Amino acid sequence: MLSDLLTSSRGPGVIGTLLALIVLLGFGGLFLFVVDDTGPFQGDSLAGQIKMKKKAIVARQKEIVYWNEAAVEYEQRRQQKSTLAQVERKVKQAFKDIEWGKQEVAREQTEISDLQKAVEAYKKEYRIVERERAVGEKLESFTTKSGKTYERVTIKEVSPHEMRFSHKNGNSGVHYEELPDDLYDRFQFIKEDAELTEAKAQKQIDISKTGGERYRISKEIMDRRNKISQNKENISRWQMEIQRKESEIASGEVAIQSAENKAQHYRELYAAGRRGLTLDSAKKQERKADLYRKRNVAARTLISTNRRNISSATSKNRKLESEVKQYTRELKQLN
Predict the structure, then answer these.
(1) Is 64 a member of any domain?
(2) Handedness of CA 48, 54, 58, 61 (dihedral sign)
(3) What is the DSSP letter of 11?
(4) Is residue 152 part of a domain?
(5) Cα–Cα distance between 16 and 9 in angstroms, integer?
């Protein structure tokens, strides 16, 4: 067959066959040269270059992974730092809010205390005024809780523990617990005040019970001390009222100035050709200013009256205190 191939006119011939073998061997050697990574030309071979590139790619991928992890860690730390800063700001604000809350609580407590004091002062003032106003008042009759009836009554005094009066059969006094409900509620008796007054009275009686003169002098001392105390309460009440009225006057002066300024402004608008409500508004502000002036006049009159009352009560107290000292000396001489 080989001889046919080499000699046949249809085959490539000997030369063609040899050439084919040479080409085949050349390509085979080239293939081995390319794929062989153990030969003397490994560094310059394509396989070596590909291998080096693969190693470089793996190294770069590791670097990418490392830097990605570093970037994630950095971002987490940055966010943690930002969160910490936010928390610190919130904590600082919380402390500020707490301090503000403490201040508000203290302010509210102060206001509550002031209001309670004002309420107590008002109740005390009411009791004083109402009991004073009742002196001289006439009642057709009243019946005590124990059932005793008094007719043609004229009230002489309302003290912390009793009401003294005259009636068609003479003079009497009724303990506050025996008074009918309307009088009891009207004069606002307080058990503690009554007990204190009775204790003082009883103490004075005990001191002077050994003799009529001692009793008389002790009662004179007690009466004067009660009047001194009453005058001091009145002085305190008048002083508080003066302070309130002075504050009202100051506020009134501000309101007057404001109303006058507004009235002037409206009149200027009216004079400039602005019609509508400007003139009525000006008159309204002027009436408002007049009203505040009248209030201030009344307040100043009351202040003047209270100051005269304070001066009179102070003078009376000096005289009463002098009498108390005199009676006290007389009482010591009897002992």
Answers:
(1) no
(2) positive
(3) S
(4) no
(5) 12
Structural domain count, the chain = 2
- Tell me the backbone φ, ψ of residue 307, rounded to 5 degrees: -65, -40
Q: Which domain holds residue 245?
A: 190-334
pLDDT in tens, 209-238: 666 778 888 889 999 999 999 999 999 999
Q: What is the pTM of this model?
A: 0.36
Give the SS3 label for residue 274.
coil
**148/178 Cα distance (integer angstroms):** 10
Sheet holding 162-167, edge to edge: 138-143, 149-158, 162-167, 170-175
Q: How many CB atoms lie within 10 A of CB 234?
A: 19
> What letters, b where the CB count within 10 A reaches 16 and e where it falls short, cover 242-261?
beebeebbeebeebbeebee
Q: What is the CATH number of the domain that holds 298?
A: 1.10.287
277-332 tens-digit pLDDT: 678 888 899 999 999 999 999 999 999 999 999 999 999 999 999 999 999 998 88
The reply to whether 66 falls in a domain is: no
User: Quick one: how far is CA 312 from the chain centroid?
Assistant: 42
Which residue is it, tokens 């590139």? 53
The residue behind tokens 């608008």 is 269
What is the rounded distance in angstroms from the CA atom of residue 262 to the CA atom of residue 256?
Answer: 10
Residue 270 lies in a domain: yes
